[in-house]
Each structure stands twice: as C-alpha cells, then as structure tokens.
C-alpha cells in the first residue's frame, strides 16, 4: 500500500458515533470515552484486528483517500480500536487529540524529532530515561539538531541554555530513577518566553497524579507499557497535544514512517485504562507505606519518595502532583555487592527493569537502565552503585514490607 497525496483531513473519522463523555469526571471517562459500539451492542469494546478496510466502490475508496468520506483506510494510518484508545486517552488527559504508537520510545521520538529540522536546538533535563537521553544526546545531533542537557532542577540553567533556534524543551518528572521533581509550570514559562514548546514524559507521575497540559506543557507523552497496561503484557505509547500540533507534526510522520500501535495491543491498553485509576491509587498507597517503613532503616542510606515531606522538592510535589507516584528510590549501603545481595534475597518482589506493573518490581539502574552512561554521568545524576528503584505493585503492603526488610537483613 502506498500513497503520496496529503489527505484533506489528517484526523481519522470513524463512521460509528463517538460517545459524548467529555463532561463526565475523569474516572468515568477512563471507562467510557472513545467506545465505538457496533450494531451488535457489545459491552466490551470490539477488537478490530485487521490490516485494511474494503470499500463499496472505487469512488468511495477515492473519497476515503481525499478525506471526504469518513472511515478507515489502512491500520498503519489508523484503526478503529487504536482510535478508541487514542480518544479515551485524549479525553482523560484533557488534550485536544492523541496519537498512539507501538512503544513509549516511538512516542517520545515522534514528539521530539518530527517537528524539528537541521539547525534547530533542543534543551532537555539530563535526568531522564536512558533511551530518551540517547535520542536527545546521540541521535538528534547526527541530523544537525543540537541539544543542550541541563540540571532540570535549576531554572537558571534552562534559561541560559535557550537559544534563538531552540524549538523544544523536554523533561520527565519525577525523573528516572532518582525521582527529582521538576517545576513544570516554571519551565513551561521559560520555554514559551523563548519561543520553544515544552514536551513532558509523564510516565513516572502517571496521568492520575499529574496533568502537564494543565501546568503549561504543550505536549505529553506516555509509555503505555507502564501503568496504562500495568499488567506486563503489551508495549505501547501515546502522544497528546493540540489538534494543530498533532496534525502539523505528528500525524503524517507516524503515518509515513510506521511505528503504529497494533490493534490487539490497543485493545489491551483500552481495557487497562478502565482500571488505571484504582490500580495507580492502590500502588501509590503501597509505595507510600513502604517508603515510610524503609526510611531510616540502618541498611538504607538516602530514600527518595515524592510523597514524603522529606523529599527535596516537596513544595513542587504539593504544587503539581496529586500524590507521590508508585515509585521509590533508595540506596542500599555498601555499593553494588550489597545491592545485589539485597536483590537476590528478595522472594516476593521480582527483579525486572520494567515498572508500573501489578507485580512489585525492583531494578538496579547502574547496571541496567543507565548502564550505557559513563560512571561520571551516573554519579552526576545521583545513580550510585547501591541505588535501587522500586516499583510498587498491587500485593498486600505488609507482604511487601516483610520481603524488603527480610532481604535487607541479609545485607
Ligand atoms: C519505559 C519508559 C519509556 C519508554 O517506553 P517503552 O514503551 O519501553 O518504549 C520512556 N520514558 C519513560 C520515563 C519510561 O519509563
């Protein structure tokens, strides 16, 4: 399948009525928005596991390609199940529109790369997910897009890094894995004053606890692989923004380069959204209880949880987040050897580099997600050899605390 003509409307238009749910509260939107109920009246959303679509006539096919006829053409461009997921995400987040991608990294790459051209400049906070840092630091400069990495907590550094050709500022908050909380509203003001847009990777905060668009960001991206699926099954991603940004920069890029979300994965993620609020609330409650149980333990050095009063940016957390997230960072005293002894002694909690799952997961960032960084870069970010990232699951919190304390006793 190939085509070169730019469609009159880049936005897919389903032929089934989209439910009117925008006026409901957020939890209700998570369950009902974007459902395209067919003539059979199914309760659960149908899965349109199809590559393409057939037309009544050559004329209809032509009209579909010009955008004059509503409906779908090819699942690389759009698909009813993928559309439902996008619509539910957009209504939930309060964005004008959304586009889904095969992975979180496809969403991050599209949001950063697609609007830029050689000669443009990007400013990003240096504390970020390893692959995001690769895109900003290694990939963009190869195509003539320069980037400057700043200490995201230092507003002065954002200000000073901006150049006349800065088009995009990028950050994640809380940061991975050290859980610094960056002031999204203030950074958005600095970016806008300099003529740049702010793109926020909101995975660690989750859409339940932080709404970057309301805080002033222009674009929000998610790895749906994390809390949105939340049950360890599918990869996925989503870019949310204004209609203008998506149509001008994202729609054609995704359609023509092809990092499309599979309809099957879109269906799983759509069902994941229905339980997202209760899962994230429970996981956050567990994380808060565990952070309190571990803080001050003699085998633990620094412990960072955005929900605690001793978090270094507690005031910013209060200003922009509804709660402290599902993740905790802490340092096992004694470096890598003791950190590994601790990880290997856990019985219930699983070692995995994933996060946001129903199962509690722990990772050692220095040897996994941030292994690629030079030791000095890790040290600068506060990722010591004893640092552990813990993602709280849905188990009973007492079982989790007991597992953690028993493993610390082996250190
Ligand atoms: C996991 C993650 C990504 C990448 O998502 P994938 O779905 O694995 O491609 C990007 N940013 C953050 C903060 C993440 O945690």
TrEMBL record:
GO terms for cellular component: cytoplasm. GO terms for molecular function: carbon-sulfur lyase activity; pyridoxal phosphate binding; transferase activity, transferring alkyl or aryl (other than methyl) groups. It catalyses: O-succinyl-L-homoserine + hydrogen sulfide = L-homocysteine + succinate. Keywords: Amino-acid biosynthesis, Methionine biosynthesis, Pyridoxal phosphate, Transferase. Pathway: Amino-acid biosynthesis; L-methionine biosynthesis via de novo pathway; L-homocysteine from O-succinyl-L-homoserine: step 1/1. InterPro entries: Cys/Met-Metab_PyrdxlP-dep_enz, O-succ-hSer_sulfhydrylase, PyrdxlP-dep_Trfase, PyrdxlP-dep_Trfase_major, PyrdxlP-dep_Trfase_small. Its cofactor is pyridoxal 5'-phosphate. Its EC number is 2.5.1.-. The modification N6-(pyridoxal phosphate)lysine is found at residue 226. One of its GO terms (biological process) is homocysteine biosynthetic process. Homotetramer. PANTHER family: CYSTATHIONINE GAMMA-LYASE (PTHR11808:SF80), TRANS-SULFURATION ENZYME FAMILY MEMBER (PTHR11808). Belongs to the trans-sulfuration enzymes family. MetZ subfamily. Catalyzes the formation of L-homocysteine from O-succinyl-L-homoserine (OSHS) and hydrogen sulfide. This is O-succinylhomoserine sulfhydrylase. It comes from Rhodopseudomonas palustris. The lineage of its organism: Bacteria, Pseudomonadati, Pseudomonadota, Alphaproteobacteria, Hyphomicrobiales.
